[in-house]
Amino acid sequence: MITDKRNYVYWLKFRKDTGPLLRRFLIAASGLFLVAACLHLTPLFTKKGEIDYIFFVVDFGISILFIIEYLLKNKISLVIRVLTLIITAIFISVLSFLRSGLLGTGEISLAFIIISFFVFLPPIPSLLSALFISILPAIFGFFVYQSIVIFPDELGIRNQSPREWYFKSVSLIIFSILSGFLIQRLRAKLIKNIVYLKESRAKILKSKQHIDKLAFYDSLTQLPNRYSFEVSIQNRIDIGSKEAFVLLINIKGIKVINALHGISFGDQILTLIGNILKQYTSERPNTIVASLGGDEFILWIENSTRNRIEEAIVKFDLNNNQTLTPDRLGHRLQYRVSGIHFPSEAYNLDEVIRKLSIAMNVAREKSMNHLVWFQPEMEKKIEREQRLKNQLEKAIEFNHFKIAYQEKVDISNQSIVGLEALARWTVAELGEISPDEFIPIITKSDLIVPFGKKIFEKVVSQIPSLQKVYGQEIKISINISPIFFLFPNFNDYIITYLNQNSINPKSLIFEITEDIFIDEIETIQSIVSNLRSNGISVSLDDFGKGYSSLHYMQKIQFDELKIDKSFLDEIATSDRNFLLLESICHLADSLGLKTIAEGIEREEQILSLKKTSCHIVQGYLYSKPKILFE
After folding, report:
1. Where are the domains of the chain?
2. Short-list 384, 405, 256, CA closest to 331
3. Reported pTM
4. CATH superfamily assigned to domain 226-374
5. Which tens digits make up the pLDDT trace of 121-130?
6. Where are the alpha helices (DSSP H) in 501-574?
7. CB within 10 Å: which end of the chain, N or C, has fewer?
8. What is the DSSP letter of 60?
9. Distance of CA 543 to CAs 84, 87, 546, 550, Å?
């Protein structure tokens, strides 16, 4: 039953595929019968023989019938067309048998129609129809046996033998079974191959669609990717878009979310952000949004102004979305935005993205939700930083830095009690580079540890010469960056190097800034305690500049407290600033710390300091940093 159903399905598919073939057959058969009809009229031209008007009418009528069926096409069902073919073939065969007996084309017509049955009909109906047609000669044989049909002697003795007619029927039955079996097998295999090819084509088409989607869309957010974005923008330009603003949005906090909740949760957040941006831009036909991968998105905005875009960025808040609330994420989503005008500031998409990235570096230094527009000076700054970075790598490798020393003075007796070592760097074609410029580059370039080692080692090598000039009791202060301070085995490296060079650790003071304590206070406590146990003093530098907290001073035992210049600039003119300074000095005294005032440049500052317990100062009023030995 299942096999029959499958065969019937195959036949339906085959009938659909062979419909055009049948229509071609109809037009070809119509032409052949028309030719046959015309051949019956040849006696008109040859003046020999008689015209067979019966066959002329039959052939011409069949030709007209086939052409009408061809013209009607799908308006006549396939079954009716096949029945017409059957009736026509029987009619021709009967006429052929009556006219010419076994010498005519009756058998050929029957064989032809039997083949047509197996090609155009379902398996069972085609076999039954073929068997039915095959008994037509047997019927003639019965009529001959009953002397109902008598053939003239000129047609041959065979026509008068019923056995010959029965034999023809048996031959047609055997032909029907064998041809039916072979045709059904071939047709089944052919249909299977056709179905397989169609399924393969569908799979290839589906794969192509998937590949196209991967080529044009970001697999995570389903937003257009950079390539699709570039194509869309080019289309906009081609149809007349003259100018636009392009924004780069960088989502901050995804790494924290990945660490807290896993990468899959972070991917869900990026997908939701993509949906928010898609919804935001779908309502604005002049805006296109795309994903650059990861946590970066790019927008193309036409028919707008800088002010309108800035207002929109301020109002745009990812955390207003119910799914992205800080309570649920465990972290507030923040974003940075950089912008550029196209085409006045960038003429193609590569240039746009490059300059947006430059502006994004500046945006990272700004407050959140702040849009930073690209400025040509930014590019010059980046180029200079890259140039300096390349020079710095060589300067660190070959120790091209020099050390300048600034004196620390006790204002009570004007004596020099210490020196602060400061790195100085000069580039041949650029001149002297300020530490405020090259130190951040060193930090960003992961060069701070080798740089710190070079400076430390150079200062240590100059300590004997400094002690000859300033006396054996002089103490040298060295600024240690947080990254270097937290470098593995920092204490072991310092003590080992001092011992190898026979330098008393008591000659050194390490100055560290408050930002080092944000996350590593327990580690810092251990490092400071170990340094002090080995005789090295530790100074808390830039107190009051950023992260000042009594908690640090409670946890960690320092030797010095350096008050930042910002506290001291107006102590002579502001009672409030003086009271703050006085309070800091009392606090330091109670904890047993020396206080040092840095950045002193005016005499009136000295007069105010003399009213406090802070008597050690450092600044241009007494001494500028000097390179002593190089």
Report:
1. 5-198, 226-374, 384-627
2. 256
3. 0.59
4. Reverse transcriptase/Diguanylate cyclase domain (3.30.70.270)
5. 777 777 888 8
6. 517-533, 550-555, 565-568
7. N
8. H
9. 108, 112, 8, 11
